[in-house]
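Single Protein Entry

Contents — chain, fold
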Amino acid sequence: MVLDAAAARYVIFSDQHKGQRDGADDFLASEPAYNAALRFYLEQGFTLFALGDVEELYENRAQPVLRAYSGTLRLEREFFRLGRYFRFWGNHDDHWSAPGAVQRLLGPIFGAGVQVLEALRLKVIDQGKILGTLFLVHGHQGTFFGDRFRWMARPLVRYLWRPFQRLTRIRVTTPSTNYQFRLRHDSAMRAWAEAQSELVMIAGHTHHPVFDVSAPGYFNSGCCSFKDGTITGIEIVGGEIRLVRWPNARSELKAEIVASAALRNVFSR
Protein backbone atom coordinates (compact mmCIF):
# COMPACT_ATOMS: atom_id res chain seq x y z
CA MET A 1 0.00 0.00 0.00
CA VAL A 2 1.30 3.46 -0.92
CA LEU A 3 0.99 6.65 1.15
CA ASP A 4 1.38 9.86 -0.87
CA ALA A 5 2.68 12.38 1.66
CA ALA A 6 1.05 15.36 -0.01
CA ALA A 7 -2.35 13.79 -0.61
CA ALA A 8 -2.83 11.54 2.44
CA ARG A 9 -5.47 12.38 5.03
CA TYR A 10 -5.04 9.75 7.76
CA VAL A 11 -5.92 9.68 11.44
CA ILE A 12 -4.68 6.99 13.81
CA PHE A 13 -6.36 6.22 17.12
CA SER A 14 -5.66 3.34 19.49
CA ASP A 15 -6.61 1.89 22.86
CA GLN A 16 -10.25 2.88 23.11
CA HIS A 17 -10.91 -0.11 25.41
CA LYS A 18 -14.67 0.10 24.91
CA GLY A 19 -16.47 -1.73 27.72
CA GLN A 20 -20.06 -2.25 28.88
CA ARG A 21 -20.84 1.23 30.24
CA ASP A 22 -20.23 0.15 33.82
CA GLY A 23 -17.76 1.17 36.49
CA ALA A 24 -14.98 -0.75 34.78
CA ASP A 25 -15.47 0.94 31.38
CA ASP A 26 -12.40 3.10 30.68
CA PHE A 27 -13.81 4.46 27.40
CA LEU A 28 -17.01 5.90 28.81
CA ALA A 29 -15.55 9.31 29.74
CA SER A 30 -13.82 9.64 26.38
CA GLU A 31 -16.83 8.71 24.24
CA PRO A 32 -17.94 12.32 23.54
CA ALA A 33 -14.47 13.40 22.38
CA TYR A 34 -13.95 10.26 20.30
CA ASN A 35 -17.32 10.47 18.58
CA ALA A 36 -16.81 14.17 17.83
CA ALA A 37 -13.42 13.36 16.35
CA LEU A 38 -14.87 10.60 14.17
CA ARG A 39 -17.57 12.94 12.82
CA PHE A 40 -14.97 15.57 11.99
CA TYR A 41 -12.57 13.20 10.25
CA LEU A 42 -15.41 11.54 8.38
CA GLU A 43 -16.57 14.87 6.99
CA GLN A 44 -13.03 15.96 6.16
CA GLY A 45 -12.26 12.87 4.08
CA PHE A 46 -9.78 11.19 6.41
CA THR A 47 -9.02 7.48 6.48
CA LEU A 48 -9.35 6.00 9.98
CA PHE A 49 -6.82 3.57 11.41
CA ALA A 50 -8.03 1.90 14.63
CA LEU A 51 -4.74 0.60 15.97
CA GLY A 52 -5.80 -2.12 18.39
CA ASP A 53 -7.44 -2.56 21.80
CA VAL A 54 -10.51 -0.98 20.23
CA GLU A 55 -12.70 -3.12 22.48
CA GLU A 56 -11.86 -4.30 26.00
CA LEU A 57 -12.23 -8.06 25.58
CA TYR A 58 -10.00 -9.08 28.45
CA GLU A 59 -12.72 -7.87 30.81
CA ASN A 60 -15.81 -8.44 28.67
CA ARG A 61 -17.38 -10.68 26.11
CA ALA A 62 -17.66 -9.16 22.67
CA GLN A 63 -21.42 -9.01 22.16
CA PRO A 64 -22.29 -6.80 25.17
CA VAL A 65 -19.53 -4.34 24.22
CA LEU A 66 -20.70 -4.12 20.62
CA ARG A 67 -24.25 -3.49 21.79
CA ALA A 68 -23.14 -0.87 24.32
CA TYR A 69 -21.36 1.24 21.70
CA SER A 70 -23.55 0.75 18.66
CA GLY A 71 -23.51 4.51 18.02
CA THR A 72 -19.72 4.69 17.87
CA LEU A 73 -19.61 1.60 15.70
CA ARG A 74 -22.04 3.20 13.25
CA LEU A 75 -19.59 6.07 12.84
CA GLU A 76 -16.71 3.66 12.30
CA ARG A 77 -18.86 1.74 9.83
CA GLU A 78 -19.22 4.86 7.69
CA PHE A 79 -15.44 4.97 7.22
CA PHE A 80 -15.51 1.30 6.21
CA ARG A 81 -18.41 1.87 3.80
CA LEU A 82 -16.37 4.59 2.08
CA GLY A 83 -13.25 2.41 1.88
CA ARG A 84 -11.45 4.52 4.46
CA TYR A 85 -11.12 2.16 7.42
CA PHE A 86 -8.34 -0.07 8.72
CA ARG A 87 -8.73 -1.96 11.98
CA PHE A 88 -5.96 -3.75 13.89
CA TRP A 89 -6.06 -6.13 16.83
CA GLY A 90 -4.14 -5.70 20.07
CA ASN A 91 -3.66 -7.84 23.12
CA HIS A 92 -6.94 -6.74 24.76
CA ASP A 93 -8.97 -7.49 21.62
CA ASP A 94 -6.98 -10.39 20.17
CA HIS A 95 -10.38 -12.07 19.73
CA TRP A 96 -10.32 -10.29 16.35
CA SER A 97 -7.20 -12.18 15.29
CA ALA A 98 -9.58 -15.04 14.37
CA PRO A 99 -11.23 -14.36 10.97
CA GLY A 100 -14.24 -16.46 11.97
CA ALA A 101 -14.96 -14.26 14.99
CA VAL A 102 -14.54 -11.14 12.86
CA GLN A 103 -17.06 -12.30 10.27
CA ARG A 104 -19.53 -13.58 12.88
CA LEU A 105 -19.50 -10.55 15.16
CA LEU A 106 -18.14 -7.57 13.20
CA GLY A 107 -19.46 -8.66 9.80
CA PRO A 108 -23.13 -7.90 10.62
CA ILE A 109 -22.10 -4.41 11.80
CA PHE A 110 -19.62 -3.37 9.12
CA GLY A 111 -20.60 -5.56 6.22
CA ALA A 112 -18.95 -8.21 4.10
CA GLY A 113 -15.21 -8.00 3.69
CA VAL A 114 -14.33 -6.44 7.03
CA GLN A 115 -10.84 -7.48 8.15
CA VAL A 116 -8.75 -6.95 11.26
CA LEU A 117 -5.00 -6.73 10.69
CA GLU A 118 -2.02 -7.39 12.92
CA ALA A 119 0.23 -4.90 11.13
CA LEU A 120 0.49 -2.89 7.94
CA ARG A 121 3.38 -1.46 5.92
CA LEU A 122 2.87 1.70 3.87
CA LYS A 123 5.39 2.82 1.27
CA VAL A 124 5.69 6.59 1.70
CA ILE A 125 6.30 8.71 -1.40
CA ASP A 126 6.73 12.44 -1.80
CA GLN A 127 6.71 14.04 -5.26
CA GLY A 128 7.43 10.65 -6.79
CA LYS A 129 10.37 9.92 -4.49
CA ILE A 130 10.26 7.01 -2.03
CA LEU A 131 10.93 8.30 1.48
CA GLY A 132 10.70 4.96 3.28
CA THR A 133 8.21 2.67 5.02
CA LEU A 134 5.61 3.51 7.63
CA PHE A 135 4.89 0.49 9.84
CA LEU A 136 1.64 0.42 11.83
CA VAL A 137 1.11 -2.11 14.62
CA HIS A 138 -0.54 -2.17 18.04
CA GLY A 139 2.81 -2.70 19.74
CA HIS A 140 2.23 -5.44 22.32
CA GLN A 141 4.17 -8.01 20.32
CA GLY A 142 6.96 -9.62 22.30
CA THR A 143 5.89 -8.28 25.70
CA PHE A 144 5.56 -10.63 28.67
CA PHE A 145 1.89 -10.28 29.67
CA GLY A 146 0.74 -8.53 26.52
CA ASP A 147 1.89 -11.28 24.16
CA ARG A 148 3.70 -14.37 25.41
CA PHE A 149 1.60 -14.86 28.56
CA ARG A 150 -1.61 -13.06 27.69
CA TRP A 151 -3.47 -16.33 28.34
CA MET A 152 -2.54 -15.71 31.98
CA ALA A 153 -3.30 -11.99 31.98
CA ARG A 154 -6.83 -12.34 30.60
CA PRO A 155 -8.42 -14.20 33.57
CA LEU A 156 -6.59 -11.97 36.06
CA VAL A 157 -8.04 -8.87 34.43
CA ARG A 158 -11.54 -10.31 33.94
CA TYR A 159 -12.06 -11.95 37.32
CA LEU A 160 -9.94 -9.80 39.66
CA TRP A 161 -9.27 -6.34 38.23
CA ARG A 162 -12.68 -5.77 36.58
CA PRO A 163 -14.79 -6.49 39.71
CA PHE A 164 -12.45 -4.31 41.76
CA GLN A 165 -12.67 -1.48 39.21
CA ARG A 166 -16.47 -1.72 39.02
CA LEU A 167 -16.66 -1.22 42.79
CA THR A 168 -14.04 1.52 43.10
CA ARG A 169 -14.37 3.20 39.64
CA ILE A 170 -10.61 3.68 39.64
CA ARG A 171 -9.11 4.93 36.38
CA VAL A 172 -5.38 4.40 35.95
CA THR A 173 -4.58 6.17 32.68
CA THR A 174 -3.80 9.87 32.96
CA PRO A 175 -2.85 12.27 30.16
CA SER A 176 0.80 13.14 29.69
CA THR A 177 2.49 16.42 28.87
CA ASN A 178 5.84 14.73 28.17
CA TYR A 179 5.87 13.23 24.70
CA GLN A 180 9.41 11.84 24.72
CA PHE A 181 10.58 8.34 25.58
CA ARG A 182 9.79 7.60 29.22
CA LEU A 183 8.87 3.94 29.26
CA ARG A 184 11.19 1.01 28.81
CA HIS A 185 8.81 -0.46 26.25
CA ASP A 186 8.89 2.74 24.18
CA SER A 187 12.68 2.59 24.11
CA ALA A 188 12.59 -1.04 22.98
CA MET A 189 10.14 -0.21 20.19
CA ARG A 190 12.29 2.69 19.08
CA ALA A 191 15.41 0.50 19.05
CA TRP A 192 13.65 -2.09 16.89
CA ALA A 193 12.43 0.56 14.45
CA GLU A 194 15.84 2.16 14.14
CA ALA A 195 17.39 -1.22 13.36
CA GLN A 196 15.23 -1.46 10.24
CA SER A 197 16.09 0.21 6.95
CA GLU A 198 14.26 3.52 6.34
CA LEU A 199 11.33 2.59 8.57
CA VAL A 200 9.16 4.66 10.90
CA MET A 201 6.86 2.86 13.35
CA ILE A 202 3.56 4.08 14.75
CA ALA A 203 2.18 2.02 17.64
CA GLY A 204 -0.19 2.26 20.59
CA HIS A 205 -0.43 -0.14 23.56
CA THR A 206 1.43 1.91 26.20
CA HIS A 207 -1.23 4.68 26.44
CA HIS A 208 1.70 7.12 26.43
CA PRO A 209 1.89 9.46 23.42
CA VAL A 210 5.37 9.65 21.90
CA PHE A 211 6.35 12.38 19.46
CA ASP A 212 10.11 12.92 19.71
CA VAL A 213 11.44 14.42 16.48
CA SER A 214 15.02 14.24 17.78
CA ALA A 215 14.71 10.45 17.44
CA PRO A 216 11.85 10.06 14.97
CA GLY A 217 11.91 6.33 14.22
CA TYR A 218 9.02 5.65 16.58
CA PHE A 219 5.75 7.44 17.35
CA ASN A 220 2.95 6.42 19.69
CA SER A 221 -0.67 7.50 19.30
CA GLY A 222 -1.36 7.45 23.06
CA CYS A 223 -4.91 6.33 23.80
CA CYS A 224 -8.62 7.13 23.69
CA SER A 225 -9.37 6.18 27.30
CA PHE A 226 -7.78 8.80 29.52
CA LYS A 227 -9.67 9.20 32.76
CA ASP A 228 -10.30 12.93 32.19
CA GLY A 229 -12.12 12.19 28.92
CA THR A 230 -9.40 13.42 26.57
CA ILE A 231 -8.05 11.38 23.67
CA THR A 232 -4.86 11.58 21.64
CA GLY A 233 -4.11 10.42 18.13
CA ILE A 234 -1.84 10.95 15.17
CA GLU A 235 -2.77 12.73 11.96
CA ILE A 236 -0.92 12.44 8.68
CA VAL A 237 -2.07 15.30 6.48
CA GLY A 238 -0.59 17.99 4.24
CA GLY A 239 2.82 16.30 4.22
CA GLU A 240 2.99 16.43 8.01
CA ILE A 241 2.70 13.99 10.90
CA ARG A 242 0.94 15.49 13.92
CA LEU A 243 0.11 14.51 17.47
CA VAL A 244 -3.39 15.79 18.27
CA ARG A 245 -5.53 15.94 21.37
CA TRP A 246 -9.33 16.13 21.69
CA PRO A 247 -10.85 18.25 23.17
CA ASN A 248 -8.56 21.27 22.88
CA ALA A 249 -7.13 23.33 25.72
CA ARG A 250 -10.38 25.36 25.90
CA SER A 251 -12.39 22.14 26.37
CA GLU A 252 -13.95 22.55 22.93
CA LEU A 253 -14.67 19.37 20.99
CA LYS A 254 -12.03 20.26 18.43
CA ALA A 255 -8.54 18.99 17.67
CA GLU A 256 -5.51 20.67 19.15
CA ILE A 257 -2.18 20.08 17.42
CA VAL A 258 0.27 19.26 20.19
CA ALA A 259 3.31 18.61 17.99
CA SER A 260 4.03 18.31 14.28
CA ALA A 261 6.84 17.59 11.83
CA ALA A 262 7.23 17.27 8.08
CA LEU A 263 7.20 13.63 6.95
CA ARG A 264 10.12 14.37 4.64
CA ASN A 265 12.20 15.55 7.59
CA VAL A 266 11.17 12.57 9.73
CA PHE A 267 12.45 10.11 7.16
CA SER A 268 15.56 12.11 6.38
CA ARG A 269 16.67 11.73 10.00
